[in-house]
Design goal:
By secondary structure, this protein is α+β, with helices and mostly antiparallel strands. Helix content is 37%, strand content 38%. The two termini are 23 Å apart.
């Protein structure tokens, strides 16, 4: 079973979590169009939304896929691979 995470952006509405990027950073996209991507950082000052291009978002997901594969986290890798195919192909 996969858990989906959503976040409400003040201007763009509901965002869908694509992947964790680093410890306190996650990649989100707009729920319906999946054309706008945001790097969301959770820090002491709260959430910070940084827009990123589609190609940068794809690169972030591919780097995360490599990290998961090297770590032997096959279940997480398979889940992210499915999200990657659905979002970028």
């Amino acid at each position: 079973m996969t858990t989906e995470t959503y976040l409400n952006h003040p201007n763009f509405g509901l965002l869908f979590r694509v992947s964790q990027v680093e410890d306190s950073q996650e990649l989100f996209t707009t729920l319906y169009a999946q054309r706008l991507f945001f790097l969301v950082t959770n820090g002491p000052g709260g959430l910070r939304f940084e827009p990123v291009s589609r190609s940068d978002a794809r690169l972030m997901v591919e780097i995360r896929l490599r990290t998961l594969r090297r770590s032997g986290l096959h279940k997480e890798y398979d889940q992210l691979q499915a999200i990657h195919k659905r979002t970028f192909q």
